[in-house]
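dumping this here before i forget
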Amino acid sequence: MSQRYESGMDVRRAVLGDDHVERAEAAKTAFDEPFQTLITEGAWGTVWASDGISDRERSMLTLALLAALGNFEEIPMHIRATARTGASKQDVLEAFQHVAIYAGVPRANQALKLAKETYAEMEENGYRADRPNGRT
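structure:
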């Protein structure tokens, strides 16, 4: 694999966690392997690996873009990632408020619903929003 792929995997693991990446890797097939490589090199090895903005800011942008474009299925994964990127619940709320004004209330409302559900799941599993990196 390329250096960009290896770097992408490192960043992906740091943001999404080893468990998520292991599940995704186990589900990969010969059919979707080229697509997974593209995502790993492009999204994780280029965009997320850039030091131009912080991971906190990148989380906020990603969540806002996902909501604005109606890509709701990705929102829970990126809410869980906030425990590693440092984006707070308040940061996420602010991002979704921007979505409401610039992309529409229904999209922001759905995104907030998913965020609330995901934060509740995280808290059931010991996540503490009032602690650094959500650790108990």
